[in-house]
């Protein structure tokens, strides 16, 4: 039987995965306060639908950074897809392309970007980058990504150091099993060969100057992933980036960052419609997407659900995730009286008296 919801799919994935791999995917940093907060925030915010608006079947197609997409749902970058399923990132890319959805390939993918592009066969790929202190290596990787046909660079800025994931420490999960590695981290060797994969470096020295450097190094649109402070959103505007992805890394980096949904309104205010805003963290239902759009996001990204689909059924599982969310979003918009994203606004959101009181006291 096919899972009826993404939550059922997670349970199915958990049955299939090694416990250590499940924890690696499911877990967050420290006490996992942020991990829980992301999902809980959606449950706490109510929707108040409009009726009798006669808008017809909701239209979900949209354009993000010049890329047409069948729905405002992007696949967030997640590492190690071959740990979830032997077909790994190729399966994810095929499912995304068939659904007309954008896939963001992780720099830590266990399949090389060129092979993912081949599997995607004309689908839209974005590439996620951890800026490496070795700028020569970073630049060579950017050339690789451009040559593979990726349409945007998603630069993750929330990881000056690696978050402490206690589930992995407890499980002794320190390395990928033999035969798997971060294929994009293999520098070019002589005669078209590739050397051994380098570890991904995290650097506390990264600054806005590196974003300026990146801006000059590529003509690809730049998305900054991991912004949560409105002051940084303003900096992003000044530095000429093309979009921001409001993200707390699915609760895997700094613990106790509030839910991304709660952080979105001040960022949307700072951006003032001048850049597209994406949001990730805890999206599990179509109604979650309506809430994110109502608070100012242009699109959302999904991380773990894709891994659950992949673990449960490979390409078909990822296709099921995308189709489940697409149809849930369509139904939620119809039930809210919305015919397109432009009908989705804050008037649909219920702010309880209790919450209003808390805010003013
Ligand atoms: C197993 C796993 C691996 C991830 N790998 C990356 C990564 O390589 N690069 C990155 O920028 N974010 C990575 N993320 C964070 C996701 O891009 C995204 O921000 C987060 O998963 C969104 O929350 P969700 O899982 O609740 O949808 C990873 C998340 C998970 C769960
Ligand atoms: C290989 C890691 C850096 C991937 C990541 O960002 C994560 O696990 O959250």
UniProtKB/TrEMBL annotation:
Coiled-coil regions listed: none
InterPro entries the record matches: Aldolase_TIM, Alpha-hydoxy_acid_DH_FMN, FMN-dep_DH, FMN_HAD, FMN_hydac_DH_AS
Keywords annotated in UniProt: Flavoprotein, FMN, Oxidoreductase
PROSITE patterns in the record: FMN_HYDROXY_ACID_DH_1, FMN_HYDROXY_ACID_DH_2
Cofactor: FMN
Residue ranges annotated for the FMN hydroxy acid dehydrogenase domain, each copy included: 1-354
Family classification: Belongs to the FMN-dependent alpha-hydroxy acid dehydrogenase family.
Database matches in PANTHER family: 2-HYDROXYACID OXIDASE 1, S -2-HYDROXY-ACID OXIDASE-RELATED
Protein known as: Alpha-hydroxy-acid oxidizing protein
Organismal lineage: Bacteria, Pseudomonadati, Myxococcota, Myxococcia, Myxococcales
């Amino acid at each position: 039987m096919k899972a009826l919801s993404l939550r059922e799919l997670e349970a199915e994935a958990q049955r299939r995965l090694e416990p250590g791999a499940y924890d690696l995917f499911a877990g967050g940093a420290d006490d996992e306060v942020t991990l829980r907060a992301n999902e809980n925030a959606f449950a706490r915010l109510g929707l108040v639908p409009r009726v009798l608006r006669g808008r017809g079947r909701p239209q979900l197609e949209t354009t993000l950074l010049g890329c047409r997409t069948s729905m405002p749902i992007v696949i967030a970058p997640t590492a190690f897809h071959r740990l979830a399923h032997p077909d790994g990132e190729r399966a994810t890319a095929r499912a995304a392309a068939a659904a007309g959805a954008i896939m963001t390939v992780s720099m830590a993918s266990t399949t090389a970007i060129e092979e993912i592009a081949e599997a995607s066969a004309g689908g839209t790929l974005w590439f996620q980058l951890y800026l490496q202190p070795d700028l020569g290596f970073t630049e060579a990787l950017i050339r690789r990504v451009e040559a593979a046909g990726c349409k945007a660079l998603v630069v993750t800025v929330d990881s000056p150091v690696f978050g402490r994931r206690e589930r992995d420490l407890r499980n002794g999960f320190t390395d990928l099993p033999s035969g798997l590695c971060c294929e994009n981290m293999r520098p070019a060797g002589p005669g078209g060969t590739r050397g051994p994969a380098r570890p991904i470096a995290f650097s506390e020295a990264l600054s806005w100057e590196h974003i300026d450097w990146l801006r000059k190094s590529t003509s690809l649109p730049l998305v900054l992933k991991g912004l949560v402070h409105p002051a940084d959103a303003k900096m992003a505007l000044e530095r000429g980036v093309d979009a921001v992805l409001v993200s707390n890394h699915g609760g895997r980096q700094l613990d106790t960052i509030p839910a991304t949904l709660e952080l979105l309104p001040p960022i949307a205010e700072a951006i003032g419609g001048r850049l597209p805003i994406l949001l990730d963290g805890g999206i599990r239902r179509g109604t979650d997407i309506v809430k994110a759009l109502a608070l100012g996001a242009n699109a959302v990204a999904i991380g773990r659900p894709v891994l659950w689909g992949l673990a449960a059924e490979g390409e078909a599982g990822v296709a099921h995730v995308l189709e489940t969310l697409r149809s849930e979003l369509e139904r939620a918009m119809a039930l809210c009286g919305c015919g397109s994203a432009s009908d989705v606004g804050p008037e649909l959101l219920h702010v309880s008296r209790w919450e209003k009181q808390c805010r003013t006291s």
